[in-house]
Amino acid sequence: MVGFGMALQTEPTTCAAAAAPLLFRRSLIPFSSNVFFQPSQKVNRFKVSAVVKKSPKRLKYSAPRLPKEDGLLYIEVDPEGTDTWKLDSAVELLQSGAVGVIPTDTVYAMVCDMTNHDAIERLRRLKEAEATKPFSILCRSLHDIDTYTTGFPRGNSNGLSDYFRAVKHCVPGPYTFILTASKALPKQCVKYGPAISKYASRKSLGVRIPDDAVCQAVLEKMGAPLISTSVRSPQENQWIIDPVLIADMYGPEGLNFVIDAGIRLANPSTVVDMIQIPPTVIRQGKGPKQPWMADQNDVEETD
Q1: Which GO terms describe its molecular function (predicted)?
Q2: What number of other Cβ atoms are within 10 A of residue 95's Cβ?
Q3: Confidence at residue 57, expressed as pLDDT on a 0 to 100 scale
Q4: Separation in Å, CA 26 to CA 19, 79, 260
Q5: Cβ–Cβ contacts within 10 Å for residue 23, how many?
Q6: Which residue has the higher pLDDT, 209 or 48?
Q7: How far apart are the C-alpha atoms of 148 and 46, rounded to whole Å?
Q8: What confidence score (pLDDT) does residue 235 get?
Q9: pLDDT band, residue 194 (cuts 50/70/90)
Q10: What value does the mean pLDDT of the chain take?
Q11: Are 163 and 154 in contact (CB under 8 A)?
């Protein structure tokens, strides 16, 4: 399989502008394999790259296909969400314990039912993720976040800032917020290990509300959040942004479906630790740093 690396970085914008979905239609394909964009100095701390396909083979997946035994369902949809009826088969697979790939407002995400322990373990095997690696959840709304976490810090008479009000201006959008998990979260989402007797508890949880029509349609049809992890190549810090390449790479390994909504930008979400006060950016990505967010280096220097 032939792949090429391509680094992409968008200029910081206002929060509202950053939250707008970046959609790439087939008319933009193929990309030049020799085009490189110089990332900003801040993102150099966290390498952002991508893998794209050299020779397009999209005719192979030109129409939705029903999976054969141990096969792959491939669904091509309008990035603007005008044909979400096509997603019903993928949602049925998720509800039955499948692992699939869906678009977000940043990169593609590998997802599964957050209540299905076997599906979560299969996702780990497909991603070759360490048992200690935490996964995030994709949420439909702030209500989901309030249900499965203890919520965002709110202001009080002791001078604590109301970060909940600030966050509301950034969702939906390209941010992952780290919060304290609530008791409502299924234990398999906050514990890890090969057997129940070896589980170790994890108290924090990453939450996302993507600003992507197709992703939101999947979540609404599912009726619940999904366990999520970004789709990478075997090379560290490289995101696979071409859904055809994702199907070629993970289909033989047991991935159940891929929803193709066009090529994404190789720019992950910005991760903000909301457990720390002030909230701290621990990974700078597509979402611009807001005035109420601290930089991790600044926090470390003051400790």
Answers
A1: double-stranded RNA binding
A2: 15
A3: 45
A4: 22, 11, 11
A5: 19
A6: 209
A7: 29
A8: 66
A9: low
A10: 77
A11: yes
3-state secondary structure labels for all residues of 66-119: CCCCCCCEEEECCCCCCCHHHHHHHHHHHHCCCCEEECCCCCCEEEEECCCHHH
Percent of the chain with pLDDT strictly greater than 70: 67
Q: Domains, the chain, ranges and CATH?
A: 73-191+202-299 (3.90.870.10)
Are the C-beta atoms of 137 and 226 separated by less than 8 Å? yes
Please tell me the number of Cα atoms within 13 Å of 21 on its side-chain side. 25
Task: Tell me the CA distances in angstroms from 295 to 214, 286, 288, one per residue in order.
Answer: 32, 15, 12
Specify the long-range contacts of residues 30-38, CB closer than 8 Å, at least 24 apart: 30/54, 30/56, 31/6, 31/263, 33/4, 33/6, 35/6, 36/6, 36/7, 37/6, 37/7, 37/8, 37/9, 38/7, 38/9
A 10 A CB-CB count for 296 gives 16
What is the distance between the alpha carbons of residues 135 and 190, in angstroms, rounded to a whole number? 9
Secondary structure (3-state) at 203:
coil
Amino acid at 254: G
Mean pLDDT of 284-303: 78
| Average pLDDT over every residue of 55-61 | 43
Amino acid at 285: G
Residue with tokens 């193929």: 30
Both structure tokens of 1: 């399989």
Is residue 126 a contact partner of residue 99, using CB atoms and an 8 Å limit? yes
Could you read off the pLDDT of 22-35 as tens digits, one per residue? 343 343 333 333 33
User: Closest by alpha carbon to 220, among 55, 81, 124?
Assistant: 81
Question: For residue 52, what are the CA distances in angstroms to 160, 208, 265, 274?
Answer: 45, 25, 11, 34
Contact 296, 282 (CB under 8 A): yes
* From 12-16, 209-213, 284-288, the region with the lowest mean pLDDT: 12-16
